[in-house]
């Protein structure tokens, strides 16, 4: 696990300075405190920070091929690198190390861009091919590892994090106010756009190729839901086989590996498989909240730890500690993502850093096997609508008219009978931020709702051939998963120099899950049906049969209690309001409504994170940790 960055000048006679590369890597030192390295040639420079996980003695980067014509900087892990290495040696390639990084170099020599088809793992890398003066950037299939790039008429700059790109004083730092509505709509930022007009995310499953002044981005992988004929018994056997293989591969490490335990099925199930093949005691970690009234995950995590005999560690944090870490949170996230559980992840990974360098998480099980309740709702809703045929719309209208006298649950679902899946999905995942009536005229005129919703509507359009559950799984895998859950998982653990691995997002496991019938995922009122079946004899029944709760960070109650003054100070501060984005009276009304009724806690958190983002990246030249970080963005008016 590492941090990478670099620059390509389209005029290859214009050199890239080593001091610039050094400054870029210094900004992402937390991603790799163990080592650093640089490569420069005419018009190009690559920078690298290393967190040593595999081949501790010879894994220095950048790494080249035998004759020094192909160079790479790489962030991630290739879990099938040993078998690939054996194949490449048989074809005559000569290796100087035992790293997965060098495997990619030689695989690229063999296959060019098609090398991506062979890689099994999480990755973001940059290859400079000096033979044809080409820069090749690539990101893993589902977006476990981040990669950003900036493009102008003169150059292309890339980095694991945006802050390394912003070090270059020539970067155009204009903001993109239209993105604000997208962020407030989804509470995260789906798609390739960022709050900077000229900085983009390389999307999951895509690569970028720059040669001369031509820059092209292409998709090399997409999740396909092609149903196969398979019995439940055979599917269970095959699932166990894939799970055992992917956990074994994810346990490969030359440093200690630990487990994040949430008290749920996914993380406990992975621990059960890993412990069966472990040659030493494993460590596990969980987090709770002091003075909290929400569900406490710690007893269930402790139950799992006792069952599998781990060395277990717990940590708690309070509302004040939650508040204290928020500037650091936004500095590392670099995007205003409304993800309060990320604060819990920050504290638990900080604890784990004292014991291990690698953590394994159950992230992705819900997106692979339909674990959320809205998947179950749409499964039964669409079946009911199909049975009613043309009468569905008539019944929906009748029930909606009678809503005042109907039971609460029926009132909730009656309108959905006449609603297309697209409307249902956006209604569940996208808030009507434009209807809050808080936008100023200056911001409102820069908002395009089609642009705001585009990442989700595009994925909905591409998923039309699939059934309702698979459509929702596809859209979540293309939006919510990479741009909320995985960006949090990567950046917050890397803030503490920890590598996080997510076996349930192994692409072979995802593709197998995508091939299964809907009823293997949602069956009756059970979600993740097949996963529960294969885990029922491995995982304590108290965990298998638990109602899904998510990870309940009690920020909503804190906003109404201990953190009331903080919310008001942030959102009604003169500095915040002078940005010209929002109508002050409407913001005050939203805050007051939250204090009185508890409504809109996510929206409040999103507004606060948006403001903290501006203070970290649009106003302040400093990191919250250091007074030595160079100027990133000059202060100036944001809306004209």
Summarize the structure.
The protein contains 28 helices and 17 strands. The protein is of the alpha+beta class. A hairpin with a 3-residue loop joins strand 8 (148-151) and strand 9 (155-159).
Structural account:
With 640 residues, this protein is α+β, with helices and mostly antiparallel strands. It has four domains: 2-219, Glutamine Phosphoribosylpyrophosphate, subunit 1, domain 1 (4-Layer Sandwich); 232-369 and 489-544, HUPs (Rossmann fold); 377-477, no CATH class; 555-619, no CATH class. It is 44% helix and 15% strand. It is built from 28 helices and 17 strands. The strands form three sheets. The protein has a six-stranded antiparallel sheet. Helix 6 (232-250) packs across helix 7, helix 6 crosses helix 22 and helix 9 (319-333) crosses helix 10 (341-352). The radius of gyration is 25 Å and the shape is globular. Mean pLDDT is 89; it is low at 626-640.
Radius of gyration: 25 Å
**Average residue pLDDT:** 89
- Which structural category do the helix and sheet elements fall into? alpha+beta
Q: How much of the sequence is in beta strands?
A: 15-25%
Order of strands in the sheet with the most strands? 2-3-1-9-8-10
Counted up, domains total 4
In the CATH scheme, the class of the largest domain would be Alpha Beta
Cα distance, first to last residue?
42 Å
Shape: globular
Query: Regions with pLDDT < 50 over 5+ consecutive residues?
Result: 626-640
Q: By CATH's scheme, which homologous superfamily of the largest domain applies?
A: Aminohydrolase, N-terminal nucleophile (Ntn) domain
Give the count of helical stretches.
28
The total count of strands amounts to: 17
What name is given to the CATH topology of the largest domain? Glutamine Phosphoribosylpyrophosphate, subunit 1, domain 1
CATH architecture of the largest domain: 4-Layer Sandwich
Largest sheet: 6 strands, antiparallel
Helix content: 40-55%
């Amino acid at each position: 696990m590492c941090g990478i960055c670099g620059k390509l000048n389209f005029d290859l006679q214009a050199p890239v300075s080593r001091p610039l590369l050094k400054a870029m890597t210094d900004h992402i030192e937390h991603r790799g405190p163990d080592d650093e390295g640089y490569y420069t040639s005419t018009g190009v420079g690559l920078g690298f920070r290393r967190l040593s996980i595999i081949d501790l003695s010879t894994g220095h980067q950048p790494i080249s091929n035998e004759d020094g014509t192909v160079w790479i900087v790489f962030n991630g892990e290739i879990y099938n690198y040993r078998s690939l290495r054996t194949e490449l040696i048989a074809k005559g390639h000569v290796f100087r190390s035992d790293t997965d990084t060098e495997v990619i170099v030689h695989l690229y020599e063999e296959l060019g861009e098609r090398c991506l088809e062979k890689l099994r793992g999480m990755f973001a890398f940059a290859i400079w091919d000096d033979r044809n003066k080409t820069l090749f950037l690539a990101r893993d299939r589902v977006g476990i590892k981040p990669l950003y790039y900036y493009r102008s008429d003169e150059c292309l700059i890339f980095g694991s994090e945006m802050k390394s790109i912003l070090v270059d004083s020539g970067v155009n730092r204009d903001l993109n106010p239209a993105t604000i509505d997208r962020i407030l709509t989804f509470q995260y930022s789906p798609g390739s756009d960022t709050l900077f007009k000229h900085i983009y995310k390389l999307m999951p499953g895509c690569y970028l190729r720059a040669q001369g002044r031509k820059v092209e981005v292409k998709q090399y992988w997409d999740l396909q839901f092609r149903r196969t004929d398979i019995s439940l018994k055979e599917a269970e056997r095959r699932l166990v086989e894939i799970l055992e293989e992917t956990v074994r591969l994810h346990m490969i490490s030359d440093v200690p590996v630990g487990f994040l335990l949430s008290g749920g099925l996914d993380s406990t199930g992975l621990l059960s498989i890993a412990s069966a093949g472990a040659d030493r005691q494993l460590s596990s970690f969980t987090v709770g909240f002091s003075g909290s009234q929400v569900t406490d995950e710690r007893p269930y995590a402790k139950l799992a730890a006792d069952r599998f005999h781990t060395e277990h560690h717990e940590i708690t944090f309070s509302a004040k500690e939650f508040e204290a870490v928020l500037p650091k949170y936004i500095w590392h996230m670099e995007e205003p993502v409304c993800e309060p559980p990320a604060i819990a992840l920050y504290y638990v990974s900080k604890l784990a850093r004292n014991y291990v360098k690698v953590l394994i998480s159950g992230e992705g099980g819900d997106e692979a096997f339909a674990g959320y309740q809205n998947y179950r709702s749409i499964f039964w809703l669409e079946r009911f609508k199909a049975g009613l045929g043309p009468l569905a719309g008539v019944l929906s209208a009748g029930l909606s008219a009678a809503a005042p006298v109907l039971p609460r649950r029926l009132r909730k679902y009656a309108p959905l009978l006449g609603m297309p899946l697209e409307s249902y999905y956006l209604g569940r995942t996208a808030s009507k931020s434009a209807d809050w009536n808080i936008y100023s005229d200056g911001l409102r005129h820069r908002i395009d709702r089609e642009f705001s919703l585009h990442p989700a509507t595009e994925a909905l359009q591409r998923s039309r051939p699939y059934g309702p559950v698979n459509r929702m799984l596809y859209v979540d895998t293309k939006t919510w998963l990479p741009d909320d859950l995985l960006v949090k998982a990567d950046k917050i653990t890397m803030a503490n120099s920890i590598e996080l691995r997510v076996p349930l997002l192994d692409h072979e496991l995802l593709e197998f899950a995508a091939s299964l019938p809907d009823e293997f995922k949602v069956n009756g009122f059970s979600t993740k049906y097949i996963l529960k079946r294969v885990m029922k004899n491995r995982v304590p029944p108290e965990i298998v049969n638990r109602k899904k709760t998510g990870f309940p960070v009690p920020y909503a109650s804190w906003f109404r209690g201990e953190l009331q003054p903080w919310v008001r100070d942030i959102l009604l501060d003169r500095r915040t309001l002078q940005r010209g984005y929002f109508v002050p009276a409407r913001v005050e009304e939203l805050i007051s409504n939250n204090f009185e009724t508890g409504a809109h806690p996510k929206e409040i958190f999103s507004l606060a994170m948006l403001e903290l983002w501006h203070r970290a990246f649009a106003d302040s030249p400093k990191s919250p940790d250091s007074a030595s970080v160079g100027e990133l963005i000059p202060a100036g008016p944001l809306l004209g």
